[in-house]
Amino acid sequence: MDYRPDAGDARFLLEQVLDAPTRLRALAPFAEVDADLMGQVLDEAAKFVGAEIAPLNAVGDAIGAHFEAGTVTMPPGFADAYKAFREAGWPSLACAPEDGGQGLPWVLEGVLYEWLTGANHGWTMAPGLLHGAYECLKHHGSEALKARYLGRIASGEWLATMCLTEPQAGSDLGLVRTQAVPQADGSHRLSGTKIFISGGEHDLTDNIVHLVLAREPGAPLGPKGLSLFITSKFLDGGVRNAIVCERIEEKMGLHGSPTCVLRFEDATAWRVGEPGRGLSAMFVMMNAARLHVALQGVGLLDAAWQKAHAYAQERLQMRAPGAARSAAEADPIIRHPAVQRILDTERGWIDGLRVLAYHTGLELDAARHHADAGRRQSAQRWCSLVTPVLKALCTEQGAGGASRLLQVFGGHGYVREWGIEQHVRDARITLIYEGTNEIQAIDLLVRKVLPDGGAGIQALLQELAQDVDALADHGADTAARLQDACRLTQELVRASRARAALPFEAADDYLRAIGLALMGWAWHRIARAPGAAQGRWTGPRHALDLRVLPEYAMRAGIIRTQCSAAGAQAA
Amino acid sequence: MDYRPDAGDARFLLEQVLDAPTRLRALAPFAEVDADLMGQVLDEAAKFVGAEIAPLNAVGDAIGAHFEAGTVTMPPGFADAYKAFREAGWPSLACAPEDGGQGLPWVLEGVLYEWLTGANHGWTMAPGLLHGAYECLKHHGSEALKARYLGRIASGEWLATMCLTEPQAGSDLGLVRTQAVPQADGSHRLSGTKIFISGGEHDLTDNIVHLVLAREPGAPLGPKGLSLFITSKFLDGGVRNAIVCERIEEKMGLHGSPTCVLRFEDATAWRVGEPGRGLSAMFVMMNAARLHVALQGVGLLDAAWQKAHAYAQERLQMRAPGAARSAAEADPIIRHPAVQRILDTERGWIDGLRVLAYHTGLELDAARHHADAGRRQSAQRWCSLVTPVLKALCTEQGAGGASRLLQVFGGHGYVREWGIEQHVRDARITLIYEGTNEIQAIDLLVRKVLPDGGAGIQALLQELAQDVDALADHGADTAARLQDACRLTQELVRASRARAALPFEAADDYLRAIGLALMGWAWHRIARAPGAAQGRWTGPRHALDLRVLPEYAMRAGIIRTQCSAAGAQAA
């Protein structure tokens, strides 16, 4: 079965749980965005994704992108689907009206890309970097570069890539060696090899734009010597630029997305922003990019869940415990506790992670557009602290949860025809790209929590604890967990003074603990919403309380053991 | 890099940790098996597996088994490797001397197949069912059937399959429909379709033997109507039997093993054992088969670990925290805590799981061959209770741990050339076949723990607690965990009386809790062995204590929450 986005669920979470229309209308550019408009956009998006993109998922995997003599042919149907996507205006959904965009909030684009990924991860990689390139160029590009590229990126007429990784430089971009030699006309000549370039070559658009990290002659070693450049497959007048696609990778999954090795052979390029400021120019869009990856995890998990749920309703095996005797030899496996447990637990993850990710999307919109500087700052704090948590939490669950949902199919889950094993293979990359989950954990603890002595995250956690209704069901537990996470942060801050390596050793557990504390809050929000006390929300909520949230105490215990050891070592 | 079995590790665990030579020499058939002989067998096995089988792993995945017009061609090199395997006498390692076997203990065969799987899971599927077919036929076959088949199965001249699953009958074999109609000459005619038949067709041997579950006319519905039959691709005189390979499955992994759909069109077959006793004839070898699958998980995890460990020593990225300043721009990633944590934790799992699995293999040998009936019974108790735990624990860790080890490679782990993603894809099936892990959990709790009110498992856990040296490092914790698992069992037994569905709801958590309690004991045994207090064992042991064993308390807490709810509901 193909993935079918559920616009009703998204509307419920955005409107009833997160009060999105009110929050968005408070931002000047979105004064016209009410529940009706949001609902229309979501309904249309769900329809488009389900009808045009989802049916191409299996063929994208089975046939894949094809490389021959420097060119890449995309799987059958991908180009037509992209044409339809572009003509319907989806690429420019969240671009500014002055650039030809529709000026809608980021959060709606986030939901759109979550659904696209659930429907067809491989296809979605192609337009997936458009908006990042748009933001990067809009904020840092010269007027000349904007005139050449911005409108075409906003409209999706030309697709875009990010060229960061090199064979010797992955997580450590400071090791990048690609050279950019300035020319008399203000352009640069790029030379070097970039790897893992998603959509580095394809036949979806007439031209392909590349944003490339490189080093000018004489620039210092390390990250501070890096600048950002823009270039494209074709230059003005249709002249072919000296950019060669050497090959595409054979991968575990994501076969619908060509992962290219690109060789720049004195390719003509232009610098975007100041010299030596390449990383910061790129990182302007980092939170949005990471949140997109988090939502990919959610989309893939939901796609796997839909398949497993449908299968469990139809597959008959054994009598369920306590089932009423009937003429049937066997019951649908959804009535077996072992299967129900998997479905409810993963559903609990999906719903809770959506609340956190959509809330973060709304904060991203507030950080950009709120009139009040203090409110912008608190929104920015949320995005900065929570985005790495979500990137790791959602992708870990996307891949791990999809694998658990595969289990519902028994042996049938392992064969291609049911489609669930493709989700597991596709999802695995999300734990790695856009910064590995281990890098996310270090980003959270070492770069964001420790520098202010934990003040920022403690303030955030306290605000959530105050948002909790202690009298509601599980309210006291939820608040207590958030407050314990504050204390845990303090203990970790202190112990890190005794052992410099501790933050690196405890980072993964800390990220996970914070994530679980946030999940408790998210489900508390859901449970308070009208209508969520019964029906389809009760099973997942019970599963989350019973089986997921207890991990918080385990992680906190592991961190405290490490803090004690660090203290004892120092004493 | 190809997998290289480490005979030194196996010898250390068997000799120093588990006292295997003494235990085996106490069994009459193994009176000659001393440490030297075991060492020689292990050294030879390691050499053979590393030289002949491991190098074919990547080609088996990339090219895979090929189906055309009813026949299957195995990947290049597979047939020669099988010929070498057979000529070296490996198939008959643990077969009885009177059947042409070498009469060595099961535990050595277990280690051999662990290594074979780590080296090449796909190839290993081919001989993987030989020994099970041998045991089944030896115990239940008539003299005529033994004369026809037993020696050729023991020697591996003919390979063997198990034909259980049908489209409508997976976990629920009671739904099997294949018919076996008796003939005047004492044979039967088989008709029906079997799916998921590993090695149902191939070009490795001249003939293929099938053990088939089927139903005679008039047999009762459900599992009690099933009988076991033996048949083969060719009958006496080279006559082709009416068995058609319809197709092979396209799977997530394990491409080197053809997973066949077999259609029986009035195929000539003979019943093995009594009518209606098909399942029990097959289940005679169930513990051994499940332990083999557990060891597959361990082998795959070790193969993934070897790759990740080698990569982490060579890959340079970023400065490690606290690293001495040097001219190098970056340190090997093995010096980064985030990477070390993954390597140490998975190593801790591998070593601990090996102790448990090898100990279980030794108990399997004792259950078969010990002179003392009481000792045979206690060995049987161990195998019966611990085998389902290990099947689930080892395979969960095999697939999940391989995926975590993939993370060490960053983006390189996602591309084919490093080989680690193949292990993740291959390993995924082990959570499903030979009874899904959910079925293992139900087998443990519902079929084995509850029927005697928990007495058997409590006795087993108490004996382990008494084996623990409370004065040794972590000894008190290890004993306390085992004793808590006893109390937990009692609580679950009581609460299950109040809520009949509870055992099915709590089974997975219970299996996991028992598994973790056993892991604590296993590492306690390792730590007590000479030389294991330092060197390569310390990092994994620390990781296990810090990060793995705390899950016990979490699982116990989840179970207790369920027990309380069941009690409250009943009250």
Task: Give structural notes.
The structure is a homodimer of 571-residue chains. In chain A, helix 3 (35-53) runs parallel beside helix 6 and helix 15 runs antiparallel to helix 16. The first copy, chain A, is globular and about 80 Å long. In chain A, the strands form 3 sheets. In chain A, strands 3, 4, 5, 6, 7, 10 and 11 form a 7-stranded mixed sheet that branches. Chain A has a two-stranded antiparallel ribbon with strand order 1-2. A two-stranded antiparallel ribbon of chain A has the order 8-9. Chain A is of the alpha+beta class and 571 residues long. Chain A folds into 4 domains: 7-138, Butyryl-Coa Dehydrogenase, subunit A, domain 1; 159-276, Butyryl-CoA Dehydrogenase, subunit A, domain 2; 285-321 and 329-435, Butyryl-CoA Dehydrogenase, subunit A, domain 3, CATH 1.20.140.10; 437-571, no CATH class. Chain A has helices at 7-17, 20-25, 35-53, 57-62, 78-87, 106-124, 130-140, 143-155, 278-283, 286-314, 337-369, 373-406, 420-427, 437-449, 455-467, 475-498, 502-528, 538-548, 551-570; strands at 66-68, 71-73, 159-163, 179-182, 188-198, 208-215, 226-232, 234-235, 239-240, 243-248, 259-272. Helices cover 55% and strands 11% of the residues of chain A. The model of chain A has no long low-confidence stretch (mean pLDDT 96). Chains A and B meet through helix 11, helix 12, helix 13, helix 14 and helix 17 of A and helix 11, helix 12, helix 13, helix 14 and helix 17 of B.
